[in-house]
Specification:
462 residues, mainly alpha, Rossmann fold, Serine Threonine Protein Phosphatase 5, Tetratricopeptide repeat, 3 domains, four-stranded parallel beta sheet, 18 helices, disordered N terminus
Length: 462
C-alpha cells in the first residue's frame, strides 16, 4: 500500500486456499461467484492454491519469495482444517504465511481470514485478526450459506473502499504539499503545523508521506537554487560596474524578486554575498588571482605575501626595507586601482556605444591584468559591434581558456560563427556547450535561447 511510482488505484486481492476434497472446492467456487461484482469496480483478483500453485510461494533459487505478494493490497486466507494443518506442518508454507502476517502487522498489506469451514484454534495460528464473516461463524456451519458469502463480499468491499480513500487522501496530500512548497520554500512554522494537521486527520503513514515529501522537496530545492542563481546573476550584472543602484535598477530587481517568489531575507543574503565578493576583487587582482578565486585562498595568499615581505625585510637595513615594502605595496595598489579605473571607464564608453574608446580602455586593463576574464568578454562584445569578428572570436576564445565554464563566452562566440563568419558546425558546437552550462546554472531564459538557436541551425539545409 506504499505510494510509489506506478502505483495504481486498482486494488489487488490474492486469495490463498487449500482444498482437501470436492466439497471444499465447491465452497470456493461459490465464494468466487459472490465476488464477481468486485471485478467490476476495478479490483484484480488472483487465486493461489497450495501446494499446486507452489510457484507463487518459491522461486528457482529457493529463496522462497512470495512473488505475487509484492504487488498485492489484500491477502485473504480461506480458513479450513486443511489450510491450518499445512501451516502447522509444512515448513515452506509456514514461512511464507508468517511473512504475510508480519507484513500485515507492519501495515504494508491487509490480511483477512475468510472462515469457510469451522476449525478450532485458528486464531492461535494466524493471530488476532478480524475475520469474515463478521459473525465469526464459518460459512459451512451457517444456516444461510448465501448470506454468509454475501457478508464476506460486503466486508471485502469495505476494505477496498478504505484503501481507495486512503490512496485518494495521499494524492490530495501530494497536491497540498506541492502547492505549499511552490508558494513558500523553506516552510514557515505555520505551514509545517498545517501539514502535520493534514497527516493526522487523514492518518497517513510516515513511510508514504516521506516518499512524497522527499520527491517534491528535491525538485523544489533544485528550482529554488536556480531562482537564487538567476537573481544573483542579475544583481551582479548591475553592481559590477561599481556604481550605486539607481531607483530604476532597484525597481527592476524588486520585480524580479516578486517573479521568483524570493523572501526579503534571502535577497538580502544574496546581495551581501555578491557585494562582498566584488569588494574582494581588487585584492585578488593585486596578488594575481582571477575574479573567481576563493576568498579564503585570497586571504591566505595575502598572508604569504606579507610574511615573505617581512622575511626579506630582515636582510637589509630597516630603513631601506621599510621604504621598499611601502613602495611595493603602493605600486601594486596603484596598478590595481588604475586597472579598475580602466574597466569602469571602458564600461561607460560601452554603454554610450563608443566602442572604439571602450576597446582601448579594455585593452589597457588587460595589459595590467592579463587574466581578467570580464575584460576579454566585454572587449569581445565591443569588437563584435564594430564588425571585427575575428578579433571578437579571439577575445571569447581567450576568456574560455581562462574560465572554461563561462557560458556567455561560448554563446557569443557561437553567435559570431553563426551570423558573421559562417561556420555552422562550430556554431552548433559552441551553442551546445553554452546550453549545457546554462542548464547547469539554472539560467532558464538563456537556456531557452540556446535551444532556439540550435533548433534553427539544425533544421537549416546545408
Amino acid at each position: 500500500m506504499s505510494l510509489s511510482p506506478g502505483y495504481s488505484k486498482n486494488i489487488k486481492i490474492v486469495f490463498i486456499y487449500s482444498s482437501s476434497g470436492r466439497k471444499d472446492e465447491n465452497l470456493r467456487q461459490d465464494l468466487e461467484k459472490h465476488l464477481s461484482t468486485l471485478k467490476d469496480s476495478g479490483v484484480f483478483i488472483e487465486w493461489c492454491k497450495y501446494p499446486i500453485d507452489i510457484s507463487h510461494f518459491s522461486d528457482d533459487t529457493n529463496n522462497h519469495t512470495f512473488n505475487i505478494l509484492e504487488t498485492s493490497d489484500v491477502v485473504a486466507l480461506l480458513v479450513n482444517p486443511h489450510l491450518i494443518s499445512l501451516i502447522q506442518n509444512t515448513t515452506l508454507f509456514s514461512t511464507e504465511i508468517q511473512r504475510i502476517l508480519q507484513r500485515g502487522k507492519q501495515e504494508e498489506i491487509i490480511v483477512v481470514p475468510l472462515l469457510i469451514r469451522e476449525i478450532y484454534g485458528w486464531e492461535k495460528v494466524l493471530g488476532d485478526l478480524n475475520p469474515l464473516p463478521k459473525s465469526r461463524i464459518a460459512v459451512k456451519r451457517s444456516s444461510d450459506t448465501d448470506g454468509a458469502f454475501h457478508n464476506i463480499a460486503k466486508g471485502l468491499e469495505e476494505i477496498i473502499e478504505k484503501i481507495k480513500q486512503y490512496h485518494q487522501n495521499l494524492q490530495e496530500y501530494r497536491q497540498i504539499f506541492y502547492t505549499a512548497i511552490q508558494n513558500e520554500y523553506p516552510f514557515s512554522t505555520q505551514t509545517l503545523n498545517t501539514l502535520i494537521q493534514f497527516k493526522q486527520n487523514w492518518e497517513l503513514k510516515n513511510k508514504d508521506i516521506e516518499f512524497i515529501e522527499q520527491e517534491i522537496t528535491a525538485q523544489a530545492k533544485q528550482e529554488h537554487n536556480q531562482k537564487l542563481q538567476r537573481y544573483k546573476q542579475e544583481f551582479f550584472q548591475i553592481v559590477r560596474r561599481g556604481n550605486s543602484l539607481s531607483e530604476q535598477e532597484r525597481e527592476r530587481l524588486k520585480t524580479l524578486q516578486n517573479d521568483l517568489s524570493l523572501k526579503d531575507e534571502v535577497v538580502a543574503r544574496i546581495e551581501n554575498e555578491v557585494t562582498e565578493n566584488i569588494s574582494l576583487q581588487p585584492f585578488r587582482r593585486l596578488i594575481g588571482y582571477d575574479n573567481q578565486a576563493n576568498p579564503n585562498v585570497v586571504i591566505t595568499a595575502i598572508v604569504i605575501v606579507v610574511v615573505a615581505a617581512l622575511l626579506g625585510f630582515c636582510k637589509s637595513s630597516p630603513e631601506t626595507q621599510l621604504t621598499n615594502l611601502e613602495n611595493q605595496g603602493e605600486n601594486k595598489l596603484k596598478i590595481a586601482t588604475k586597472k579598475i579605473d580602466y574597466i569602469k571607464r571602458a564600461n561607460d564608453h560601452y554603454l554610450q556605444k563608443n566602442y572604439q574608446a571602450a576597446i582601448k580602455d579594455y585593452t589597457q586593463a588587460i595589459e595590467i591584468a592579463p587574466k581578467n576574464v570580464n575584460a576579454y568578454i566585454q572587449r569581445g562584445y565591443a569588437q563584435h559591434y564594430i564588425q571585427k569578428y575575428q578579433a571578437a572570436i579571439d577575445d571569447y576564445t581567450t576568456a574560455i581558456r581562462l574560465s572554461p565554464d563561462l557560458a556567455d563566452a561560448y554563446a557569443n562566440r557561437g553567435l559570431v560563427y553563426d551570423k558573421n563568419l559562417p561556420n555552422k558546425q562550430q556554431a552548433i558546437k559552441d551553442y551546445q556547450k553554452a546550453e549545457t552550462l546554462y542548464k547547469k546554472q539554472g539560467a532558464k531564459d538563456k537556456l531557452k535561447e540556446m535551444r532556439s538557436r540550435l533548433k534553427r541551425l539544425q533544421q537549416t539545409k546545408p
